Predict the structure.
Amino acid sequence: MIETMLSDRLWIYTAIVGAIIGAAFIHYFKTTRLGIWSYSKFDNVIDYLRDKWGLTWLDQPRNAWKVTFPDIAKNIEELENRIKKLENK
């Protein structure tokens, strides 16, 4: 079996092309209504499993959204700093 895997490399190319096509589909799918609904349901299932069985490794950090949306996080931090300055005056 190992000898045929080393001599016949078609499986490597098939795996690479399949991974690229799958990644492209997921990138497209996540912006559709069905994709948003599916991701929401998946997130609900993960939250349910986390709460039911206490799987703490499924918890997301509180600041995870800041990595996803750095521009919004920067604007919020600037606004919070401005509010603190105004409160101190």
Q: What stands out?
A: The mean pLDDT is 89. Helices lie at 2-7, 10-29, 33-53, 64-68, 70-88.
